[in-house]
Design a protein that fits this description.
The complex is a heterodimer. In chain A, 76% of the residues lie in helices and 0% in strands. By secondary structure, chain A is mainly α. Chain A has one domain (64-284): MetI-like fold. Chain A is flat. Chain B has two domains: 32-145 and 304-367, 3-Layer(aba) Sandwich (D-Maltodextrin-Binding Protein, domain 2), CATH 3.40.190.10; 149-302 and 376-416, Periplasmic binding protein-like II (D-Maltodextrin-Binding Protein, domain 2, 3-Layer(aba) Sandwich). Helices cover 50% and strands 14% of the residues of chain B. In chain B, the strands form three sheets. In chain B, strands 1, 2, 3, 6, 11 and 12 form a six-stranded mixed sheet that branches. Chain B is globular, with a radius of gyration of 25 Å. The A-B interface holds A 44-46, 59, 62, 64-65, 125, 129-132, 149, 151-152, 154, 237-244, 254-255, 257-261, 264 and B 71-72, 74-75, 78, 82, 97, 100-101, 104, 106, 191-193, 245-250, 382-384, 386-387, 391, 394-395, 397-399, 409, 412, 416.
Chain lengths: 311, 417
């Protein structure tokens, strides 16, 4: 009787998890494997079951547009993550000063994140358009030499996209950092005040390291946005003047739907997946390694403590 | 569970099962046809309504399945065909977009309708080549669009002192210079890849000539881009970039047309769908704006358009609907009514063109001259190769790439595609 209850509980738990497990395995992992299968075939509009080896991959890296899209993603990723972390942290610090309208300000700063990337992209496109937006307005105010035409320049269009994306996402980073800041003990501040350390020094050398987990969370969320950046590019520049703001997700969707070349699109998405895994794998290994070391150190300490107690 | 709860649960289960068991009665709809298309803008909706009205008058039931965006609509059509719930008819362009579907045996042919209506005789050659694959007719054409008309504002031309329509490339450049001197934007341009692409088609067909055009797109000659004649065409095409304004990148085509309508810009190279914009602004061809299809009296007339394909369905009622659709779409009266609203020209020249506007009438007259008909590249090359060439053109237009590098990139794209 007593052995049947745990089994029943396990069965119920498994029955509840089964839909999710099936979805993950069949839909997610299954379609990833299917895409990889298609990437070694010559499929165009419809999937074909033949095998052409790595021809699609060769064509992929021959394509100037794909290589450019990877470079753009790297540039966007670096600027976007750094910009969001820095601005988000500064906003969180500002709100942490117990300003009067804290709730209102928090809402205002977080509000852009509630907008879709498409709406953000469209509005920023109008604002950054040299004929309709900021440049025309400031020139109308009597500064005829003011130029702000990043969005129509080959070399600066990615910066324009970074501006729009950072504007949207820094609210989220601010919320995460604020939660971390609020978790810091009051006694720390009092101790710092007694010691006479300037506030900025406290933030930089003491608080920032303590925000490690918040920064890590924000970094992961932002990285996900970087890899799948698509809507802000399509809404703002449709790939930019020429090919200047091409990104991998847009390349994949273009080949999938418009160019009727699902073989090439699958090859591109496989390469994107492997790139992300290649970047994440060392990080996961480092984290696992660090946690194993921490565990070993803790065990050693406990062992020495018990030794000390018994000795 | 208590007795009461058990009984309640069983009652609910029975009720649920009963609703599942009841079949909704099949509605008796004569010749029901679900038509999937992407004509969702104002003018386009009015045009497709003409098709629906004609079909309903012929005894059919039209079920509209509109999806905004050409690529999305085509993707939805393919997905539905693969998934087993195909629409009765799906819209594609007159192109090679549906060749893969034919190869995989997913489309039904309409040879019966084609034979009954003499399609071999009444349809122009570029369209026949696109819809007649291996001797069978797999699509019904509904319109002919010409993507390379030159539209100009009469007010702007008057202000710049341009007396007549340019008949050669040099005359066009002279006119653009005059427009620039008069303080207007010479060429209203939208810097999106597809607009750069059709401007290049217009330029290659008019300046390079039909032979060079066909050598590139039909014969896919990899040595052609390296020839000095082709490089000259590329160079003069890039010269047009001097006449567009700084805000042109990523501008929508109708915003560029608005510049011409307002008289702020002189010329726009755009397809005949631009007529809708002029009509909405209450401007008439020949009065406030003018149109010419190319340089000179023998300029080539690029033929593009839309077709409807019929997925293979094993239901005799659906097959009957498909054949009725094909017959109705190509009837002369339907063609005229549709062309009026759509801004295109009818697929057949044996129609009464009195109700069409000046530019459309000009188009129908030109189509009677077989030597001037030129298929658009999408009828000759796959969407993949067309996309690769579009990438080359857009890079050449937007950067300082040299003509030699662009020519080399074009040869590489032709070799790969």
């Amino acid at each position: 009787m007593t052995s049947r209850r745990p089994l029943l509980r396990h069965l119920v738990a498994w029955a509840a998890l089964l839909p999710m497990v099936a979805t993950v395995l069949w839909v997610y992992v299954g379609s990833v494997l299917w895409s990889m299968r298609i990437s070694v075939s010559s499929s165009r509009t419809l999937p074909i079951g033949d095998f052409v080896g790595l021809k699609q991959y060769a064509r992929l890296f021959d394509s100037e547009r794909w290589v450019l899209s990877l470079q753009n993603m790297a540039l966007f990723g670096a600027l976007f993550i750094i910009g969001c972390l820095v601005i988000g942290f500064l906003l969180a610090v500002f709100i942490d000063q117990r300003v009067r309208a804290e709730g209102v300000l928090r809402t205002i700063f977080l509000y852009p994140y509630a907008m879709s990337f498409v709406a953000t992209g469209l509005v920023w496109q109008w604002m950054l358009n040299p004929e309709l937006g900021l440049q025309a307005t400031v020139r109308g105010w009597g500064f005829p030499n003011f130029t702000f035409d990043w969005i129509v320049r080959q070399d600066a269009v990615m910066l324009a996209i970074v501006v729009a994306a950072v504007w949207q996402a820094c609210g989220l980073v601010m919320a995460l950092m604020l939660a971390g800041l609020r978790g810091i003990d009051e006694s720390l501040w009092m101790a710092a005040r007694i010691e006479g350390i300037p506030k900025w020094r406290v933030y930089l050398s003491i608080v920032l390291p303590m925000l490690g987990p918040s920064i890590g969370t924000a970094f992961v969320l932002l990285s996900v946005s970087v890899v799948k950046v698509f809507d802000v590019v399509v809404a703002m520049t449709q790939g930019g003047p020429g090919l200047a703001s091409e990104v991998p997700a847009k390349f994949i969707i273009d080949n999938l739907l418009v160019r009727a070349n699902i073989g090439l699109a699958s090859a591109a998405s496989t390469v994107l997946l492997l790139t992300v895994l290649a970047l994440l794998a060392p990080w996961f290994y480092a984290r696992a390694h660090a946690s194993r070391r921490a565990e070993r150190v803790a065990r050693a300490l406990r062992a020495s403590a018990t030794q000390g107690a018994t000795a | 569970m208590t007795n009461k709860t058990t009984r309640l649960a069983l009652a609910l289960a029975f009720a649920f099962g009963a609703t599942l068991g009841v079949q909704s009665p099949a509605q008796a709809q004569a010749n029901r046809a679900e038509v999937l298309h992407w004509w969702t803008s104002g003018g386009e909706s009015a045009a497709v309504k003409e098709l629906a009205t004609a079909y309903t008058k012929a005894g059919g039931t039209w079920v509209d399945a509109a999806i905004a965006g050409g690529e999305q609509a085509r993707a939805a059509a393919v997905n539905r065909m693969v998934g087993g719930t195909p629409p009765t008819a799906a819209q594609f362009n007159t192109s090679k977009q549906f060749l893969d579907l034919i190869d995989q045996g997913m489309l039904a042919n309409v040879d019966v309708v084609a034979a009954a209506n003499n399609w071999d005789k009444i349809l122009p050659a570029p369209i026949l080549n696109a819809i007649k694959i291996k001797g069978h007719f797999y699509a019904v054409p509904v319109d002919i669009h010409m993507p390379a008309w030159f539209w100009y504002s009469k007010a702007a031309f008057a202000k710049a002192g341009i007396a007549s329509e340019p008949k050669t490339a040099d005359e066009l450049f002279a006119a653009l210079d005059k427009l620039k001197a008069a303080g207007l934007v010479p060429l209203a341009f939208g810097g999106q890849p597809w607009q750069e692409k059709i401007t290049f088609y217009a330029w290659l067909a008019n300046v390079g000539g039909p032979d060079m055009y066909m050598k590139l797109y039909r014969d896919k000659d990899v040595n052609l881009p390296a020839t000095p004649q082709f490089k000259a065409v590329l160079a003069s095409f890039k010269k047009l970039h001097n006449y567009v304004d700084a805000g042109s990148p990523n501008r929508n085509w109708n915003d560029a047309t608005a510049m011409v309508i307002a008289g702020k810009a002189g010329v726009q190279i755009m397809g005949d769908w631009a007529k809708g914009e002029f009509a909405t602004a209450h401007q008439t061809a020949g009065k406030e704006f003018g149109c010419f299809p190319g340089f000179g009296p023998k300029s080539p007339y690029l033929v593009a358009g839309d077709v409807f394909v019929f997925p293979k369905i094993n239901d005799p009622a659906q097959i009957k609907s498909q054949q009725l659709l094909a017959t109705v779409f190509t009837a002369p009266a339907t063609q005229v009514a549709f062309s009026n609203k759509k801004g295109s020209i009818p697929i057949r020249t044996d129609v009464d063109v009195k109700s069409l506007d000046l530019c459309a009438q000009q188009g129908v007259t030109i189509m009677k001259d077989v030597s001037r008909q030129l298929p658009t590249p999408e009828m000759l090359i796959s969407p993949d190769l067309e996309g690769s060439l579009q990438d080359v053109i857009t890079k050449f237009w937007n950067t300082n790439e040299s003509v030699d590098d662009a020519a080399k990139a074009m040869s590489a794209a032709l070799k790969n595609g």
